[in-house]
Specification:
alpha+beta; Creatine Amidinohydrolase; five-stranded antiparallel sheet; four-stranded antiparallel sheet; binds magnesium ion
């Protein structure tokens, strides 16, 4: 069932989204060579709890941490551990929070120090593709119009869209209907309506689109070993168009 949220509910989702946006904003200063991923996770958990919220991923289907941290060829769902970030890596950080029964979900990919030009381009195109997907999220359009915009843009640069993982509705659960693929033909699936809240999250590979799951049961990585980037926003669909709820008011 696709849920239509009241103004009050959208405000509650927005509050949780602000917490995740501020968490990633806070972490940005620490994403640099020599920092351990576990340290980032601890800082995020402390920050979220200080806002009277709880980390939404921790315990979700048994996931053990606050953040998903995915380095280079890891696409999403990397488990924080004591690995140390190194110059030249790119690192996707995905964060969820729940407060007063409502969820927010947001992800960004960061450079660790100076990174190769092709990785920078991958991040830039992935971020822009998220923005193009968001632009398509207007009442009267269809779910697949979002993915169609993303895929068309991304493939024009020779990058590829991961198929196995998708965006989703969000609200009183972290993952709700509908699924929001990052690819597809236009005008398919549910019609978008005012009051729907969705998380759009392109996962874009530098090389081939295929991915595999590590033996830890969580980490998704590219089959060809090339880098992948991930950006995600939670948005509300309004009569005035899409409203990004997970944008940090402090710093974009
Ligand atoms: Mg996420
Ligand atoms: Mg998500």
């Amino acid at each position: 069932m696709v849920r239509i949220r009241t103004k009050r509910e959208v405000d509650l989702i927005a509050t949780s989204c602000q917490i995740v946006a501020d968490t990633l904003n806070m972490l940005a200063d620490y994403v640099k060579p020599g920092v351990s991923i576990l340290e980032l996770d601890r800082k995020a958990e402390k920050f979220i709890c200080s806002k009277d919220a709880r980390p939404a991923f921790k315990g979700y289907m048994g996931f053990p941490a606050t953040l998903c941290v995915s380095v280079d060829d890891e696409v999403v769902h990397g488990i924080p551990n004591d690995r140390i970030l190194k110059e030249g890596q790119i690192v996707g950080i995905d964060c969820g929070a729940e407060k007063d029964g409502y969820f927010g979900d947001h992800a960004k990919t960061f450079s660790v120090g100076n990174t190769a030009e092709e990785k920078q381009k991958l991040m830039e195109v992935t971020h822009k593709s998220l923005m193009m997907g968001i632009e398509a999220a207007v009442p009267g359009n269809y779910v697949s119009d979002i993915g169609h915009s993303i895929q068309t843009y991304v493939e024009s640069f020779g990058f590829s869209v991961v198929r196995e993982l998708v965006g989703h509705g969000i609200g009183t659960e972290l993952h709700e209907e509908p699924q929001i693929p990052n690819y597809g033909k236009p005008k398919q699936g549910y019609m978008l309506r005012e009051g729907m809240c969705i998380a759009i999250e392109p996962m874009i590979n530098l090389g081939h689109k295929d991915v595999k799951t590590d033996s830890d049961g969580w980490t998704i990585r590219t089959v060809d070993g090339q880098a992948s980037a991930h950006f995600e926003h939670t948005i509300a669909i309004t009569s005035n168009g899409p409203k990004i709820l997970s944008q940090s008011v402090k710093n974009g």
